[in-house]
Amino acid sequence: MKKTTMFFLCFLILMIPIQVMAQRHIPILVYHFIDEYKGLGSKDLYVTPENFEKQMMYLRDHDFTLLTFDRWQDIDKVSKPIFITFDDGYQDNLNAFEIFQKLKNEDFKPTGTIFVISDFIGRSNRLSKLDLKRMVDSGIFSIQSHTTTHPYLTKEKNYEYELKESRDHIQKITGKPVYVLAYPYGDFNNKVLEETKKYYSFGLTTTPEYFSKKGIKDELYLLPRIYIKYSTTLDEFAEIVDGG
Ligand SMILES: [Zn+2]
What is the distance in A from the centroid of ligand 1 to the CA of 64? Predict the structure, then answer.
């Protein structure tokens, strides 16, 4: 082998770990219903409690650290950081709560973030005020905003109502700061980002990618998320979280 080729190969091998460390790819997962599918609505918005538990056990057994956004500054400090999020505030997220409590041990402290639609709190299949309070008080869940009525924000006129009102309403229920917004339908544009910045520190999309710090403008308001679906097998789940 030519000397220059050898040198180039050594250089590449040395560079790879540096690249990997500098470009940590963090999965932010999104779930909706944690329940059996009973034939209503989109099946892929459901993950059965059994599958959810297996997925969380996988994270526990492979040394992942489940974070909420108040620990954002820890993403470079902990083993395998990952964010578990739930959209729409369905009552069956209590199944996730139960599973987290069951799997919790000395070394594994499961946490997650639920994005609730503040006007929908307490409706028939949604979490109630009391549920939210219990979940927050357990230290397991962070409750954040998914707006007041779940509109397409790019078509919205009354941002104060959708963004500020929902934030204030949820804060009143939980007694904890609300500073993360999940855009309904993953719908946003520059105007939406500007309005979000007035009231929130983070904005979550549904762009299916890993998060990696790129230092680009507004990156904390463009956080990507990866869907876990009814059809996601445990092997696929492992591939998703390990690919990060
Ligand atoms: Zn939603």
Answer: 26
pTM score = 0.90
What is the DSSP secondary-structure string of 174-207?
HSS---EEEPGGG---HHHHHHHHHH-SEEE---
Q: How far is the CA of 86 from the centre of ligand 1 (A)?
A: 9
185 alpha carbon – ligand 1 mean position (Å): 6
At 155-167, the pLDDT tens digits run 999 999 999 999 9
- Rounded to an integer, what distance in angstroms lies between the CA atom of residue 138 and that of residue 140? 5
CA of 2 to the centre of ligand 1 (A): 58
Nearest to residue 128, comparing CAs of 89, 158, 185? 89
On the CB side of 50, CA atoms within 13 Å amount to: 5
Report residues of the chain scoring pLDDT below 70.
Answer: 1-23, 244
* Cα of 21 from ligand 1 centre, angstroms: 33
pLDDT at 2: 63
